[in-house]
Write a structure and sequence with these properties.
Order of helices and strands: HHHHEHEHEEHEHEE
Strand content: 15-25%
Largest sheet: 7 strands, mixed
Number of helices: 8
Radius of gyration: 17 Å
Strand order of the largest sheet: 3-2-1-4-5-7-6
Helix content: 25-40%
Length: 224
């Protein structure tokens, strides 16, 4: 665990993230929790702790700074409530649980159609004492709540992701999609009601693979 702790802290430094010791411990405890549940439920194909740190934790941590920058530019939610983020097809909680650990000021809901994955998120919330985290067993199309940010990580095509979750996007909300290579074909297939307003290339410490973050918003057509 000491080696993983050192690698995680080095990765955080490379990403320019400042977390306290309790948050670092929570991230490592979360990874241990994934490993335990993986023995019974297939949450992730990655089993090696070192690979898990790079491919899951650091990969998810790479979006924290861009997410904070984006939220800082958005109007505050009604009545000064905490910003709400929905992580779609969350699986083992990536990046939703990582966001909840790093950003206690954000209310994070992780939705998955697989019951055992939603149950894992609920267990992570209890075990890691994350009062800002919920696991939802549902189809995203059925959700009635709205969110300032809707995220996904290797979940579906951009067109499907945005159409399935459109009703859950708050007015002036944004979609944040984590992708590998720049998804030219997916971007070309987006419906006219969705606008890409920013594409960020992410550098994940220790991961020699392309990563990018696609930021989108709904185009509001005003009546003439």
């Amino acid at each position: 665990m000491h080696a993983l702790d050192a690698r995680l802290r080095a990765g955080l430094k490379a990403l320019g993230l400042s977390l306290n010791d309790a948050q670092v411990a929570s991230l490592l405890d979360y990874q241990v929790l994934i490993g335990k549940w993986n023995k019974v439920y297939n949450l992730t194909a990655v089993r090696d702790p070192g690979e898990m740190l790079t491919h899951h934790l650091l990969d998810s941590l790479a979006v924290i700074a861009p997410l904070r920058r984006q939220l800082a530019q958005m109007p505050p939610s009604a009545e000064g409530k905490a910003p709400r983020l929905l992580d779609v097809g969350s699986g083992a909680g990536l990046p939703g649980v990582v966001i909840a650990i790093c950003c206690p000021e954000i209310q994070v809901d992780c939705v998955d159609t697989v019951g055992k994955k939603a149950a894992f998120i609920q267990q992570a919330a209890v075990t890691l004492k994350l009062s800002n985290l919920r696991g939802l067993h549902a189809r995203v199309e059925s959700l009635a709540d709205t969110y300032q940010v809707i995220s996904s990580r290797a979940f579906a095509s951009l067109a499907d992701f945005t159409s399935w979750s459109a009703q859950a996007l708050a007015p002036q909300g944004v979609w944040m999609a984590m992708k590998g290579r720049h998804p030219d074909d997916e971007l070309a297939a987006l419906p006219p009601g969705v606008q890409v307003f920013h594409v960020e290339h992410l550098s994940v410490p220790g991961l020699g693979a392309e990563r990018c973050l696609i930021w989108m918003k709904a185009i509001i057509h005003s009546a003439d």
